[in-house]
Design brief:
about 200 residues; UDP N-Acetylglucosamine Acyltransferase, domain 1; about 30% helix
Length: about 200
């Protein structure tokens, strides 16, 4: 018979009040508390904690305290990941974040779900669906990314969006529910290259 942890990571119903899961949860809480009490002068210590907390971390990752997660050990992040204040990652299911991903403040990744049926929900059953974010993604402040969502490469998610469905590559997406506003195009590149040129001229 499968363990509750195996059921959880496979996306099936599970019960969180399980000794193995409680131990993982407790370990994460200890590391998160330790991380959130570091100072701006303890960057090496922060890196050490994140490497202990996450399943995989990359080079140049930076998370601004406070940060919160359920398990941590189900989260993978690539190189140059940046998370601003009060990032929340509920990694009941696997979370995969690519390279060069920026989070504004108060971004939430919620893989956790609960049954719609009140009786089953009241019996403490839960489930989770994975979240995947590609490379070169900027997620604005106060964005919520719901269970089972995949966000492609080179994407901008506007502030306050509630992402309930997959977002393709190379787009700006906004709103509640989050929808594609437009594609990112050559005009965007030209505009920002000109802005960079002006910067160096001043």
């Amino acid at each position: 018979m499968r363990s509750e942890k195996e059921k959880m990571l496979s996306g099936d119903l599970y019960i969180a009040n399980d000794p193995e899961l409680r131990e993982d949860f407790k370990k994460a809480k200890e590391l998160v508390r330790e991380f959130n009490h570091t100072t701006e002068y303890q960057l090496d210590e922060r890196q050490r904690i994140i490497k202990s907390l996450f399943k995989k971390s990359g080079k140049g990752d930076y998370l601004e305290p406070p940060f919160y997660t359920d398990y941590g050990c189900n989260t993978e992040v690539g190189d140059n990941f940046y998370a601003n204040y009060e990032c929340i990652i509920l990694d009941i299911a696997n979370v995969k974040i690519g390279n060069n991903v920026f989070f504004g403040p108060r971004v939430g990744l919620y893989t956790a779900g609960h049954p719609i049926d009140a009786v089953i929900r009241g019996e403490a059953f839960e489930y989770g669906k994975p979240i995947t974010i590609g490379n070169d993604v900027w997620v604005g402040g106060n964005v919520v990314i719901n269970p089972g969502v995949t966000i492609g490469n080179n994407v901008v998610i506007g502030s306050g969006a509630i992402v309930t469905k997959d977002i393709p590559d190379n787009v700006i997406a906004v709103g509640n529910p989050c929808k594609v506003l437009r594609e990112i195009n050559d005009e965007d590149k030209k505009y920002w290259e000109l802005e960079k040129k002006r910067y160096y001229e001043n």
